[in-house]
Amino acid sequence: MEGRRSGSPASGAYVLPGRVTDPGAVVGQAKAAERLGLRTIWLSERWGTKDLGVIVGAVSQVTSRVRIASGITHCQSRHPALLASLAMTAQALSGGRFVLGVGRSLDAMWKAAGLPTSTNASIVDHADIFRRLCRGEKVRYDGPAGTFPSLRLNDLPDQPVPPVVLAAIGPKGLQLAGRHFDGVLLHPFLTPAAVQRSVSVVRDAERAAGRPAGSVRIYVTVVVACELPPEEELAVVGARAVTYYQIPGFGERLAATNGWSPEPLTRLRSHPLLNDIKGSADSVLTREQLVEVASVLPAAWTGEAAATGSASTCGQVFHRYRQAGADELVLHGSTPGRLGPLFA
Q: Which residue stretches, if any, does this entry annotate as coiled coil (predicted)?
């Protein structure tokens, strides 16, 4: 793993995973990540206590080397000028360490919030508008991303435009990343074989677009529960798996990408605790309840697509993901302070 303690390929980790009522814990987690020599810390933005701008500002002042990435935010949840302003302020405060991760999410979420849904065309155009604003250009735009008669940022810092990373699962999103983005963030609970297939799609699109080989950095998210008691391991891995698989459409996409039959999704969603839950289960259920629901998942759906057990076993899993084409692993589920055994 890249960093002060090892010369192997790079790793990063999520801070504030899951539901959080006290975001102040991010300070200690960010410091722990830097001590371990992690390359990047990632924040999964969540409305309430995980606002991207506030967290990045805080973390930038207690670290000096680790990169700070949003993984992910959404283009349509902020006006383009506000998003670019946030990013360049983060660049100024961090000395150029910010990475913008964006994704599409689910159309139902945006309809419920009264915001426009994303299309492939709007995502590409949002990224272009973002980069132009960060370069200090004046932007006039009318198209899939909206109508913006005249946009410009003033007083920009002497810092580069942040890399823009697209979170993607399906082939269309992966192709989009290969053609237009600086990186792609692959979803948790993909097997190494699924990652290898996804990387091939990105590299083919990268090549077809005439971009230099390796232009797109491949970030592979791996849920990790290293050296934990069985009940805690299940809480980290199983409970998180439920939050992804139970969402209609989303679970099917993950199963298809891994080459699995979608039949277990019906069994999962018919669990009594999931009755009448329309959105993400972890916004309603406790961790203990999620663990109970996780018991109906096939063992392969977590065992083949996560890193659990001893540090040595987890290291072997990481090696398989790197062999599949990962440029950087993004460790999820366990906070940086619990990753010590992996770096010992």
A: none
C-alpha angle with apex 258: 255 to 259, nearest 5 degrees? 85
Q: What share of the chain is helix, strand, coil (3-state, %, to 5)?
A: 45, 20, 35
Cα 317 from chain centre: 19
Euclidean distance between CA atoms 24 and 220, whole angstroms: 27
8 Å CB contact between 33 and 60: no
6-7 vs 2-3, strand pairing mode: antiparallel
Closest CA to 88 of 148, 160, 181, 163: 160
- Residue numbers in the chain where pLDDT is lower than 70: 1-9
Q: How far is CA 74 from the centre of its chain?
A: 11
Q: Which tens digits make up the pLDDT trace of 115-126?
A: 999 999 999 999
Give the integer Cα–Cα distance in Å for 10 and 35. 14
Fold classification of 11-226+310-342 is: TIM Barrel (3.20.20)
Residue 333: left if φ>0, alpha if ψ -120 to 50, beta else—which one?
Answer: left
At 282 the pLDDT is 85
* 8 A C-beta contact, residue 329 and residue 342: no
Q: Which two tokens stand for residue 207?
A: 């090549």
pLDDT of 6? 37
What are the residue boundaries of the structural domains of the chain, listed by start? Answer: 11-226+310-342, 228-307
Per residue in 153-178, is it b (16+ CB within 10 Å) or e — as a string?
beebeebebbebbbbbbeeebbbbbb
Give 14's strand partners: 42
Nearest to 342 by CA among 200, 228, 251, 201: 228
User: Is 182 in contact with 102 (CB distance < 8 Å)?
Assistant: no
CA triple 208-210-215, angle to 5 deg: 100
pLDDT digits (tens, 9 = 90+) for 138-176: 999 999 999 999 999 999 999 999 999 999 999 999 999
Token pair, residue 67, equals 């990169």
